[in-house]
């Protein structure tokens, strides 16, 4: 039920550069901007505060952590922003993430190729807690925990889907670099370390998954 807001600005955090008493006010307005149909009276935050740890990116404001009282409203907000990397709110750029542990994120990254396939095939899906996928296929609900289980149900080629996922990650990183160059009016010769490390981590996870798949095939033979 937690969400993590990360501001993508370079000016120290405006307009969310506010004391703790005002953070909830700004977060509520942001959520109503994202989902205008949310009932104003029933939108309740159990707590809201800045992250205690320093920002991972120098010069960026600390994340804002918040807990929505209603699970249904949290799911509605996250579903709305799932495919939106950046949200423009009152002239500023923000990102909204579900606050997950590093282990959960790592396990979910390993299933990312299946999510790519679902989006390409317009298959409806959602996450189960903590790391499995629930999706609808041929008017039936299915669950899988690994790419191999998804392959058994859907019959897609794991190798080609993984390659497509890697290509998508590289294209996303290139688009982000191009947007940053346009924003500052100058070009940078190489991707920044955080983008490079992100792709390396994703690549390592996918390679690990391939090795596990090869080992399983060898055992079956």
From TrEMBL:
Positions of the UniProt region annotated as Disordered: 176-221
Gene3D superfamilies (alphabetical): L1 transposable element, C-terminal domain
Top-level division of the source organism's lineage: Eukaryota
Bias kind Polar residues: ranges: 191-221
Compositionally biased spans, kind Basic residues: 179-189
Name of this chain's protein: Uncharacterized protein
């Amino acid at each position: 039920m937690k969400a993590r807001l990360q501001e993508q600005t370079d000016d120290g955090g405006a307009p969310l550069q506010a004391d703790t008493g005002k953070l909830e006010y700004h977060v509520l307005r942001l959520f109503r901007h994202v989902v205008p149909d949310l009932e104003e009276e029933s939108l309740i935050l159990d707590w809201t505060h800045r992250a205690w740890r320093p920002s991972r990116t120098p010069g960026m404001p600390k994340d804002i952590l918040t807990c929505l009282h209603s699970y249904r409203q949290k799911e509605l907000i996250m579903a709305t922003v799932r495919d939106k990397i950046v949200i423009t709110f009152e002239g500023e750029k923000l990102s909204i993430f579900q606050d997950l542990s590093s282990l959960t994120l790592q396990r979910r990254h390993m299933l990312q190729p299946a999510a790519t396939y679902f989006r390409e095939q317009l298959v409806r899906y959602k996450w189960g807690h903590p790391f499995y996928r629930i999706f609808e296929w041929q008017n039936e609900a299915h669950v899988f925990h690994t790419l191999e289980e998804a392959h058994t149900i859907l019959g897609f080629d794991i190798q080609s889907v993984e390659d497509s996922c890697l290509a998508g990650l590289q294209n996303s990183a290139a688009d982000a670099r191009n947007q940053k160059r346009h924003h500052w009016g100058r070009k940078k010769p190489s991707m920044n370390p955080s983008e490079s490390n992100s792709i390396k981590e994703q690549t390592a996870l996918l390679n690990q998954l391939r090795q596990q798949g090869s080992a399983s095939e060898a055992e079956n033979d």
